[in-house]
């Protein structure tokens, strides 16, 4: 294996900082501890993948970072960053065309009416959907719908002062429902957009190879309750191929560790 290895850039501040975060659902004897004392940082511009068995609290963790839910203990800090969330289901409004779906997000972000059409066109160009502005969601493939969902997430974070720097994008298995070929293309796309916009990404997936293909770092969570078990830096040069030897080898090591965890908890 002769692939070049690049050192991770030195980073100082954190865009996302979790310290001793626990989350319990319910109370008394029926209470369920979903996250237990999770401490985790994502540096500005870092791509962090969260991996774990089903039910280990990955979505709960993203919801806490998004401010959609409150931690039972500990602190969640996003340093004033704009935070957007993207899910496995694109959840577009079916009665609106692609442009109108994006314009609605821009409206929610407070972009003046006269600027919305142009901004929506820019965002659609950036996800390579410039020719599909008038289509309704049902006229698009699953991969295209996820591109629209990505453009909409970016629309919710527009800020002219910094061109997108200072945005935290939370992605909850965004490509989980797509076929392998489409997913591969979208890996290239999200990597390009992440780079161009200097986004900080927290990316939840069940797919170990996907995590190694995309992440600067892969964070492995245990289940019941979710705890950080191990972090794997991914030092390989980008762009990576999901079927490359180096990705496969590291993914195998991560999978072994994941199996140990799943075995321990009987999930
Ligand atoms: N609102 C809720 N009320 C009660 N329990 C919840 C709630 N949300 C999540 N849980 C429980 O917390 C645990 C963690 O759930 P979460 O959805 O965060 O896991 P996950 O790792 O994202 O799972 P998956 O990989 O299957 O999507 C699970 O046991 C789940 O049943």
TrEMBL record:
Residues annotated as domain ABC transporter: 16-248
Alphabetized SMART domains for the sequence: AAA
Classification via InterPro entries: AAA+_ATPase (IPR003593), ABC_transporter-like_ATP-bd (IPR003439), ABC_transporter-like_CS (IPR017871), ABC_transporter_ATP-bind (IPR050166), P-loop_NTPase (IPR027417)
Keyword vocabulary terms for this entry: ATP-binding, Nucleotide-binding, Transport
CDD domains hit by this protein: ABC_NrtD_SsuB_transporters
Molecular-function annotations in GO: ATP binding
Protein name, as recorded: ABC transporter ATP-binding protein
Lineage of producing organism: Bacteria, Bacillati, Actinomycetota, Actinomycetes, Streptosporangiales
